[in-house]
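Lab notebook page, bench 4
Experiment: in silico fold of construct C2
Operator: M.H.
Input chain length: 236 residues
Purpose: comparison with the prior construct
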Amino acid sequence: MEKIGSYYQSAIYEKTAQAAKDADRARAGSAKKAGGAEESKKAPVLSKAAQNLLKELKKTYSNMDFIVADFETDEEAASLMSRGTAEYSALFTPEELEKMAADEDVKNKNLKVLDNAVSKLDEVKNQLGDKADDITRIGISFDDNGEVSFFAELEKNSEKQRERIEKQREDKKEAAKEAGKAEAAEYLAHGKATGKRTTVYASTVEELAEKISQVDWSTIKEERQSTTGQRFDFTV
């Protein structure tokens, strides 16, 4: 009887263990599937025509980073564009880029908006005077319906950091990459980075300029962030 009891206990244990393993595999499969979906969202599959258009844009607008990704809010769009290192960033949804690649009228309409925006933004930065020194990057986004939004990322930091930003703009590409590495090493050496940061959003260049001019740094708290586990992106 003891052997029979032991047998049943062993069988129950094995069945329970197997169920646990099956559950773990199911969870792992779901996580992998979710991760794959997230990866697909980050790296959209574009048609050949859209890929060629993207190459054309990058060649034509050398002072601009082009990003293709889906987004739902201005905050999400700003987060995507904040990865850029060029003077300006432009964000298109995959759907809108495909429309531009397939329809010359849509392409010309969006590029006209882009050209006018950059021209106005250059003027705005001159009009802002010292306030323009606080701008670390400016972005323009186009959603699935061709609606345009603007954002500006502002930072009030030490003079040394400001000079680093200007150096990136001037030297671009390789020099910006090296500057990014030096900054990463400096942050890691000191353990923390401090400064005041804020982001403003607008539907027009004029509104963006007004919001930038109205930023009151005395009302914004200084940030102190640990660099432990921080990920630096050296891609230019």
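Observations: The first helix runs from residue 2 to 42. Residues 50 and 56 are 10 Å apart (CA to CA).
Next step: discuss at group meeting.
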